[in-house]
Specification:
By secondary structure, this protein is mainly alpha-helical. It has helices spanning 2-13, 27-41, 45-70. Helix content is 75%, strand content 0%. The longest helix has 26 residues, at 45-70.
Length: 71
């Protein structure tokens, strides 16, 4: 925490250049995606397919319930 505060101060005063490359992605989301990728590498193809099927069923259930509410 303190190290980040010092870094921000140095950037603000011009002692150090802001060399962070902004790729437009949330760093927290990128870290979470990396963790998920690592977790899926240890899964069997059958387990990955099972998770994907459940996710698709939930997406379609939400979509279908939204359509009913609109009508």
């Amino acid at each position: 925490m303190i190290g980040n505060a010092v870094r921000v101060l140095r950037i603000a005063t011009g002692e150090k250049a802001d060399d962070v490359i902004d790729d437009g992605k949330d760093p927290t989301a990128k870290a979470l995606g990396a963790e998920r990728k690592e977790a899926t590498e240890n899964m069997t193809p059958e387990r990955r397919a099972e998770i994907a099927k459940k996710a698709a069923e939930k997406r379609w259930a939400i979509r279908n319930s939204a359509c009913v509410l609109i009508i």
